[in-house]
Amino acid sequence: MGIELILDMAGDAHGERIALGGRDGGLSFAGLCRVADGGAAVLGAAGAGSVVHIGLNGPVLPSLVFAAAKAGLPLTPINYRLSAQRIASLVGELDRPYVVADRAFAGQVSAHARSEDWIGSASAAEPAPAPGAADDDPAVVLFTSGTTARPKGVVLRHAHLLSYVLETVEFGAADEDDAVLVSVPPYHIAGVGSVLSNLYAGRRMAYLPDFTPRGWLDLVRDDAVTHAMVVPTMLARIVDELAGAEADVPSLRSIAYGGARMPPTVLRAALAAFPRTDFVNAYGLTETSSTIAVLGPEDHRAALAGDPVAVERLGSVGRMVPGVECAVRDGDGRRLAPGEVGEIWVRGAQVSGEYRGTGSVLDADGWFPTRDRGRLDGDGYLFVHGRADDTIIRGGENIAPAEIEDVLAEHPAVHQVAVLGMPDDEWGERIVAVVVPVAGAAPEPDDVRAFVRARLRSSRTPDDVVFQADLPYTPTGKLLRRELARRLT
Fold first, then answer.
1. What local confidence, expressed as pLDDT, does residue 148 receive?
2. Contact 320, 293 (CB under 8 A)
3. What was the pLDDT predicted at 106?
4. Which of 241, 341, 347, 419 counts the highest number of beta carbons within 10 A?
5. Domain range for 63
6. What whole-number distance in Å separates Cα of residue 412 and Cα of residue 441?
């Protein structure tokens, strides 16, 4: 049995309760079961070997997740923002792909069997016996964002995804009126994870296909949303939209954020703007089937109350979820003590670490090298310092860009900042701070450098300060450092 078990359980438990869409006119749990059963028949009749989704947030992704599972096929959601050539290339790597695309993107994959009205086609199809999936079958293949290299296809098997859900979510725990607004992209692991976890909990999923901060605030208020998922860039735009005012969202009980580093200034402003809302920081990777560490509401509340230990831990991603272990190792593989910085390794039943064409990168004991650098404190809180590839090596000293970025984010004239290393004949790498100033501000480079020097060791002071109008980000809020470096050359 694969992840279709989640929908079967939810359908039996909740029947005609709304699962997807608005409170009025949405698709029920039982209706989603019917669409998934019909969709599996459509896929079987088409002779598909894999399923592709290219489209915006909406009910299509959840229906495809379970139709593909019932048909025993892997699902690959692809970033619709990629060029037509890149999309065609990724689709071409898959076995007999059946493509479900929004009408706006359908022309990019015209050479493949496809559907532009998946819900209608699946609803009209007569269900037929479907093979289903075994625990060890591939359930989802997700291509990484490719911010530092060519995208890799991460293979998540049914056992990995089931382990994630069963270890971290209580079945049927949501109240009948609970609703989550999903704003993360459907081709991101958080998008897939939200489908599984929210349906298992029995929580209605609402959608905002095209994010705007005002649209997000209006939908949360008007649709009585109780839970929301955002990436840091979205939360920053929401805070900017509020301009210091409290948000008028009385139903909202929880905001989960993740996908990239959250600037501390944005988080503090968000805590003030949503004083009656719980905040949760979720850290995970595609290769780990979504969340592996959580900083919970109690940690955020303690920080807001001024507890100095909690304030420091607000910069962490919290502690590991049940079933996942974490270790920090040096370059020789030696496990480091609390407080020491090294590479983060994780192990657990939800951890895949497998790529199409190359296989597993887990070590002999099942540990996965995340390529993130960080440290654990004495109570198991994990602090992520950034990607190992982002580390600046200046004069033989390893410097985490996040350390400098967090300081510069406090400068009153700095709206956004990114720090990266650029080649230097003398030091190996120079520290370059790229600053987007606050509207109307005109800070001087020497002032910015002095601000850092007064708070960090002199070796952390930027060698250069460059001002730009914006910074390049992925839709999930990850800084595109390679693109930024290209701008500077």
1. 46
2. yes
3. 75
4. 419
5. 4-313
6. 9
Residues 6+ apart with CB under 8 A from 380: 319, 320, 326
Report residue 48 as tokens.
């598909």
Number of domain units in the chain: 2
Phi, psi of 274 (to 5 degrees): -125, 65
Query: Residue 273 falls within a domain, yes or no?
Result: yes
pLDDT digit string, tens, across residues 92-117: 899 999 999 988 887 777 656 577 78
Q: Which of 57, 208, 74, 244 is nearest to 142 (CA)?
A: 74
Helical axes 189-201 vs 158-168, angle rounded to 10°: 50
> Which is it for the CA torsion 382, 387, 389, 390, positive or negative?
negative
Per-residue burial over 430-455, b = 16 or more CB atoms within 10 Å of its CB, e = otherwise: bbbbbbebeeeeebeeeebbebbeee
Q: Which residues of the chain have pLDDT under 50?
A: 147-148
Q: Are residues 290 and 414 in the same domain?
A: no
Q: Residue 146 has what pLDDT? A: 53
Which pLDDT belongs to residue 112?
A: 64
* Cβ atoms 66, 7 nearer than 8 A: yes
- CA-closest candidate to residue 94, choices 143, 149, 160: 143
**pTM reported for the whole predicted model:** 0.88
CATH number, residue 208: 3.40.50.12780
Q: Which residue has the tokens 């692809």?
A: 78
* Final residue in a domain of this structure, among 313, 347, 365: 313
DSSP state of 107: G
Residue 461 CA, chain-centre distance (Å), reads 31
Specify the pLDDT at position 474. Answer: 85
Domain end position, chosen among 297, 313, 329: 313
Closest C-alpha to 17, from 179, 193, 181: 179
Rounded CA-CA distance 104/120 in Å is: 17
